[in-house]
Structures are given as structure tokens and as C-alpha cells.
Amino acid sequence: MSVVFEKTKGLTDKEFHYCPGCTHGIIHRLVGEVLEEMDLLDDAIGVAPVGCAVLAYDYFNCDMHEAAHGRAPAVATGVKRVLPEKTVFAYQGDGDLASIGTAEIVHAAHRGEMITVIFVNNAIYGMTGGQMAPTTMIGQKTTTSPFGRNAEQTGSPIRIAEMLATIDGAGFIERVSVHNPVHIRKTKKAIRTAFECQQNRKGFSMVEVLSTCPTNWGMSPIASLGWLAENMIPYYPLGNFRNPDKEA
Amino acid sequence: MEKVLMKGNEALCAAAIRGGCRYFFGYPITPQNEIPEYMSRELPKAGGVFLQAESEVAAINMVYGAAGAGGRVMTSSSSPGIALKQEGISYICGAELPCVIVNISRGGPGLGGIQPSQADYFQSTRGGGNGDYRLLVLAPANIQEAVDLMTEAFDIADYYRMPVMILGDGMIGQMMEPVVFKTPAARELPEKEWATTGTGGARTPNIINSLRLDPAELEKLNLHLQEKYERVRANEVRYEMHQTDEAELVFVAYGTSARIVKNAVAVMRRQGVKAGLIRPISLWPFPERAFDELPGSVRALMSVELSQGQMIDDVKISARGRWPVGFYGRSGGMIFTQQEIVEAGEKMLREVSHVSGV
């Protein structure tokens, strides 16, 4: 019998703690596959966030360093400056990166830090029980915006990819989504290009992945995928915002 | 070895590089700016990396990453900046990583001022971060001692896998004194087998982490840390006993305060008042045993600090009710004269005599 699909060596055998239907699992797998296919697992150091992916250090099959909330890009900077030849990546959610960690992500990009950041944007705080994030959509109900997010009170959702793309130190910035197989394949390609950007020392690289949170959105996994496509993609347009091969 | 005249902040840097420091992450703040400035100039020459972070918060987290990757790393700051680093310090302690933190402290609270102060005793020895952790805190009283402690600090940190803090006040940082760079006795240091350097395909992945969701596991980590801190208490206490023989009044002072107190002790001894000094060099672990060495002639202790009284808590704990404990301090960057201390000491002795009816 021929093997047509195998679990990537980029992930350990540890069972994920993620909720049913959550797309973190897909994104973990894509990162693991890219690291394996690029033969980087033995050389990689990953930095895990605080948030739903806090236990990512148990899942990625490479050296891992757990960071404080929002500080993953600073921790990754410390690792990379000691080990400039190694592959260093951070995996962060939207509370971690787009709220408490904005200074660290902006300045990692600003320094052109040769690290790769996987930014999972699901428009909500998942781990703490569904509070409003800076990325929460207008009108979206969360446990801290029970009447729906109101722009007058809390501003409009922050577009991180566009913001970081204004920074010269950023080599590769792309927004992708994992709501269907076509986009999952595009996401994998973007993750690979981001790691290539790091390998080729073309600057900071980040992939923003639009993701779902069925548990805290209060929807079925399938309805969540539809909600992402209908509500998030129009506001958070997919595409490349910075590419080392196409000088901005 | 050659004697050189150096400013405290720069001497600390030269000692750090001699002690093996190769990575520095920091953020500008007065009165420690000569440290990042010197490091930005000199560390690259030693094959190291200097990086000015976007904030103290980022700097300490870069230290956390660099230490996890096996680097010999330090940061420096001054009081409000050290306050910002407390989160990272707690993580570094929880993950058991070695690093060196220099605090050239200034007056507080809040933005405070930029003049010398010792109001960071609590922040240094009690910790501003969360959880049951300790820093090994060393407080030099002159630049030679600062250099000696700094040179050894990286070895101590590696040996115990914990941060070492060098606590100097603004005077230590800013004044110039002659120093000789010596090579400390080498410690046998364990290999950093825990470091996240990439597996190289030769081992299972390493994880640097302070999270233990299972309460039993978190308690185990805490008990392990306490066992380590007991070893530090047993082996790393440092202090100086100065003219405590036959003393009636013993001052307790650290850092540059202790220098002024030494002058006050000399004046009092000349006037026939038997004064002495205990000078803690390690603030944590605090030299409790120094108090057990005091002679029976002692009638009172007095903690002298450039603060409103912080170390006095440890002095009282160490005195265990055996002697009354007085206090004299100035704060905000105001510095006492030896005469103020002489007068405070004499007043305390008079009060003690009055109470005891002598």
C-alpha cells in the first residue's frame, strides 16, 4: 500500500487541546509541514505566545521558548541575536500581537529582525473566554462587548498586516485565510515564503492568518468558516503587502 | 595588574565583558546611560551584540530569549526602568535562566528624580514580579568592588541558573576611582544542555518555560526553586564587619551609604564612642549570620539608608529582638553627611541608656 498522507514530523504526537473546529490545528500543521519540507526542524527555535496557543511548545517538534504575553517578538529577537544562523519563529494570536504586544511586533519589524511571525487573527480572545480584541469586528458580540463592538467607544478593528507593511524593515507581509482548502494551500505557500525571507536575510516576515473561533463566536465550525469569509475577508483583505522579491 | 581610573558605569561594563558578557539589551535611562553607550562601542569588538530595545519591557524579554539560547547576557537600567522589567525577571526566574541585571538606582516613587538613592531595596530583594522567586542581589560600595562582583556575576548566574542583580546607586555609577581588573576564581560550570539552540537532530527538543498548569507540577517547580535558594543562602552570603569589636552601637549600611557611615564610625571612635558597622554586600541572601557574630557589648543597632527605611526590615529580622533597631535615612537624592550620622547614633545611644536606666 502506498502512503498518500502522513502527519508531519514538524509536530509532536501530543494531542492538541484546541476546541473542536478551531483552525489553530490546521495552522500548526502547515507550519510543521513547511519546517519539515525545508529541512529546518533541527535548526529551528519557536517562541510560543500567551493565549490559545500557549501550549504550542508541546506541539512543535523543535526547540521551543515560551514567552510572556505579547513579548514573543522580543524573546525571538534575543534568541536570533545569539543564534543568527538558526531559524527563529514566533506564533502569536491577536490579543497577544495586536493588543498587548504591539510595541514588540512593530519594533521587531522596524529593526528588520530576521524572524518569522505566524499571526493568528480570529477577532477575539479565545483562551480567556471570548473577550473583545482590537481585531474584533464592528457589531461583533463578545463577553466584553455584549451589545456588539461599537466603533465610537472602542475604535475600529486594527489591520496589522497593512500597518507593518509601512515599515521598511519588513521583508515579507501577507494576509491569508484557512477557511477553505484553496486558501489553506495559499496559506502554506505564504508560510514557506516567509521562512525563505528569513533564510535569505531579507528582513522581518509575518503571515497573518484569518482563523475561526467556533466556541467563542457561538457558531458551528462550518458556520464559522462561512462567517470568516463573509465578514472578516471584506474588512481584512487577503493578499501580499510586502515581498522581498518585489521591491516596494 | 595595572591600575586604571574609571567611571563606575564604564568600569562595570569592562568587568562584564571580562566576565564573559557577550549580549546586551537595554533602554536609555539616567543615571546609567554610560553603560549602554560603552556596550554599544565595546561589545561588538569582543564579538558580542549590543541592541537598544524599544522599551525596558522588550529589553528584559530579549534577555530572556538570549539567555534561553545559551548566551551570556545582561541588561542595565535605573529604578523606574527596573520596575518595568519585573515581569520578565519573574519569567526568567521561573524558567531558571542565568543573566545579569544592573540597577543604578535613583529616587522614587514614580518618576522620582535622577540623584542617588537606595529606595530600590524592596524592589531588588522582595521582587516586583509575581511568584516565589529570588534574585541574588550584590551591592558594591566602591568601584573596585563593583568590578570584582561584576566580573564574577556571570559565573554565579550560570552556576545557579538564576539572575544576579548588581545594585549600585547613582554615586557608584557616576564617580571615578582607580580599579584593578582581577580574574576571579573559576567555578566549575555545568554545560547548558537545557538551552534552545536547535536540536541539531541530536536530541529531543528543549523547552524553556515557566508555565505549569498542573498545580502539583507548579508546586514541584517552586520546591525545586526553594532548594536552590537554600544553596544560595548557604554559599553566597557576603558582608563586611567593620570595627564591631567591643562596639556599643552598630550601624548597618550598604553601598555608598556604608562609606559615609565608616567615616562616622571613625569620628565616633575618636570621640570615645564605640561604634561599628555591618556592611551587607549580598542584600539577598541577607547576611543574618553577621548579627550572630556581634559581641555582647552591643546595645543598639541602627540601619542607615538613602531611603525612608527598607533594609531595616531585614535588620530587625536578623536582630531577632536582641537589640533595639533605630533608623537614619535621607531620600530623594539627598545624601547624609557623616556628622548627621554621628548625631543620630549618639542620640540613639542616649535613648537606649535612658530606657535601660544606665
Task: Spell out the blueprint of helices and strands.
The complex is a heterodimer of chains A (248) and B (358).
Chain A: H1 24-37, E1 44-48, H2 56-59, E2 63-66, H3 72-82, E3 87-93, H4 94-100, H5 102-110, E4 116-121, H6 151-154, H7 160-164, E5 170-177, H8 181-199, E6 204-210, H9 214-217, H10 221-235, E7 239-242
Chain B: E1 3-7, H1 8-18, E2 23-26, H2 34-42, E3 49-52, H3 56-68, E4 73-77, H4 79-84, H5 86-94, E5 99-105, H6 121-125, E6 136-138, H7 143-160, E7 163-169, H8 170-174, E8 176-180, E9 207-208, H9 215-235, E10 239-242, E11 249-252, H10 255-270, E12 275-280, E13 282-284, H11 288-292, E14 300-305, H12 312-319, E15 325-329, H13 338-356
Parallel strand pairs in B: 2-3, 2-4, 4-5, 5-7, 6-7, 11-12, 11-14, 14-15
Antiparallel strand pairs in B: 1-8, 6-13, 10-12
Molecular structure report:
The complex is a heterodimer of chains A (248) and B (358). Chain A has 248 residues and is α/β, with parallel strands linked by helices. Chain A has a single domain, classed as 3-Layer(aba) Sandwich (Rossmann fold), CATH 3.40.50. Chain A has 10 helices and 7 strands. The N and C termini of chain A lie far apart (49 Å). Chain B has 358 residues and is of the alpha/beta class. Chain B folds into 2 domains: 233 residues, Rossmann fold (3-Layer(aba) Sandwich), CATH 3.40.50.970; 117 residues, 3-Layer(aba) Sandwich (Rossmann fold), CATH 3.40.50. Chain B has a 7-stranded mixed β-sheet with strand order 3-2-4-5-7-6-13, with helices on both faces. Chain B has a 5-stranded mixed β-sheet with strand order 10-12-11-14-15, with helices on both faces. In chain B, helix 1 crosses helix 2, helix 3 packs parallel to helix 5 and helix 10 packs across helix 13. The radius of gyration of chain B is 21 Å and the shape is globular. Chain B starts with a strand and ends with a helix. At the A-B interface, strand 1, strand 2, helix 3 and helix 5 of A face helix 3, helix 5 and strand 9 of B.
